[in-house]
Predict the structure.
Amino acid sequence: MGAFLIASALIGSFVGAFVIQKAALEGLFRIMNAERRNRE
């Protein structure tokens, strides 16, 4: 039971980190696109 809890906690933290990273990258791309539009 303990090993299962540790494994699920690890998987949950990996999924959370991936979601946060994906959101951060999307925000960065939006900022870059907005700057590119402003320059034109």
